[in-house]
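Lest this sound abstract, we think one record worth quoting, the chain in one-letter code, the fold tokenised, each line plainly labelled:

>
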Amino acid sequence: MLSRNVENFIGCESTYDEADTVLYGAPFDSTTSFRPGARFGPAAIRHESFGIETYSPYRNADLTDKAVFDSGDMELSFGSTVKALEDIEQRASVILDDGKFPLLIGGEHLVTLGAVRSVVRRYPDLHIIQFDAHADLRDDYLGVKLSHACVMRRCLELTGDGRIHQFCIRSGDRSEFDIAAGHTDMHLFSFDGIDETVEMLVKSGAPVYFTIDLDCLDPSVLPGTGTPEAGGVTFAELEKAIMKVCKTNVVGADINELSPMLDASGASTACACKVLRELILAVSGRTGAGH
């Protein structure tokens, strides 16, 4: 059983036994390739969540009506990427083994790999839906294979071809787009094609891991991220896309890459809080056993 955090995300105050959804933070950014600071994202989201409401007018739903437990931030080794990923994998496995839905708050995008390693072991036919500005399909970054620039390449090695569905992608090395053409389902610049992807996954009933890199949003909406890319989507577009994805059999999820110190206005963190609120409401009531 996990212990309650001292400061919870707003409205997420169920006990571990009561909860069907469990938040866990991974404050790790040791492989960040440009501007660091994502390690402070989970705590900032939790603290600043008290600036938003528990009620969502988008869904006519309230966090206080949901059974959500916030286990706080993990204590991760910044000196060992391998150990940090192992610890994230182990935490996700505990949550899944207890029949609950694991919702990870990063941290840089590499933290997703730890969670996916756990989820794919339980669901070998796993699909991944990725919202991101970057393809993240490099085989290595400056000779390092465990990098946030390589996270989806490492996930591809776990899922196999055709099971990673990428949206909003607008940046990457040329080789990454060559890889995508033969191995992933990549949708450039926007959410075009998401209706067809969701329909296919709903019909198949396939388990889905849902990862949201917050830099899918345009920097005018969320500048507080390590590698901002012009040409992103709006909050309204992201909120609608989250609702669509959550019609599928989502069995695990995360949001990542908020660097709160890079936006002194606090607007980026406030936006991230709303994204997380909508994601929690969309997945709450599910368990690690699917639905």
Remarks:
- The first strand starts at residue 21 and ends at 26.
- The mean pLDDT is 94.
- The chain is about 35% helix and 20% strand.
- Residues 21-283 form a domain with the Arginase; Chain A fold (CATH 3.40.800.10).
